[in-house]
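Quick one: structure for this chain?
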Amino acid sequence: RPDQQIRRDERYTEAVRSVVAAALHLAKPSRSPITLLVTSSIPGEGKTTLAMSFAFFAALIQRRVLLIDLSFRAPSVARALEVSADGGILQALQGRPPAEMIRTAAGLGFDYLPLSPNAADPMATIAGNSIPQLLQELKQSYDCIVIDGAPILCEAETRLVATMVDRVLLAIKWGSTPQEVAKNALDLLERSALGEADLRQLVTAVITRVDLEKHARYRYRDFGESLARVRPRIA
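Got it. Here's what it folds into:
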């Protein structure tokens, strides 16, 4: 699991640290709450692993973190945490007090709202003001709210969720996701979600599942090549 990898592998920890630092603007003194959507172009790019890694590391640096599952057709947070998905975000959106639905991830330092498989129309659930109102309420209790959304090219609802958050993390699988596919995802974000906003300010692309040794041989002269020279430290 991501928390185990962070505890054992210095290279993975450094990579996650860089993502958290960029997304949370750690260099700035202000500590205003922030909401993030973690998505990908297509399934299998590691978005849930990225969302959990982000939540775990942000909790390590003393942020109050809530992880929310909003991948309606394939919810995976509860499965990754090996817990029951009963209750959670749907009940909170239907009027139940969020405090009754929120759970704590044992030993990981962050809270979460799971999503149970449901026959309800996701678009009907997301349309309207229920999610923005809930996020605004949750900001009173958390420094960082991380939403694990569905792949943006698979579910139209993700584009709506992107309009409700402060930042978007787009997972792109290294050596697998075609450039045109990732570009299509960014185009959809720009057209239907972020409007006139500058994508460079709102979207962070995160390359996932990188073979560091193979990457280093390509001589990109970037952060990944530096990570390849760091020896993993086993806890």
